[in-house]
Design goal:
Largest sheet: 3 strands, antiparallel
Shape: elongated
Strand content: 15-25%
Oligomer: single chain
Strand order of the largest sheet: 3-2-5
Amino acid sequence: MNQPYTNININPNTKKIGRYIVWGIVGLFAILVFFSSFYTIRSTERGVLATFGKMSDEVIGDGLHMKIPFIQTIKRVNVQQKKFDGIENSYTKDVQTSEVEYTINYDLVRENVSKLMKNVGDDYHNRIVVPFIRSAMKQSFGNFAATEIVENRDAVRREIEASLRQTLDSNYFMNVQFQITNIDFDDDFETAIKEKQVAEQNALKAKNVTIQVEEQAKQTKIKAQAEAEAMSIKAAALESNPKLVNYEAVQKWDGKMPQYMLGNSVPFIDLK
């Protein structure tokens, strides 16, 4: 027995809604594709384009650029000056242990950041720079005694910096600057250094006192010689002219007559 045929009628409004949904999805996908095709690189960055994950050798400068959506991706690399702080242990020439705190600054070679990312990756500092820092510091500290390092730290710093500029790959790094911010030696050695500095300061102080005493003695001697010379000149003048004796007395007389006099003479007055 045949079943009766049932005619199902679809509401036209339902068809329109379905079409709207489809077109909406297509439109959203088109918008997504459009905006995914563009990207920007800042002035402090360089871009490396990868197709299906494979990086190209091209370095992309700042500005607005296009790529193939879902196929190509862009990796942004910050090319501002790098600054890293670190700590390393080193032995001096006289086998003193030291814990050295340092700061290093450098720039990336912008036109080669794609090679750096391909060959090394994002962790280039720890993989390349730090091992060279460690090697340069051990070598330089080994060339100086601990007391030499304390007295002339900048000489060690310059040697380390020069070594890093020679050994770090110039294809990737430039403008290397190295600073030593602190050196912590063994406690016994630091105590000995402080005692030596105190002794030197005391010796310098004693030397300054000695110089001061010698200078005072010299000035006293000069003054005495000057006074003796003046008296000698005056004595010679009095001897050659006896009347100067009365003149000197008059100059020193306060105008009062003496209470006791011998004879009838008035002192200091010669009427001849």
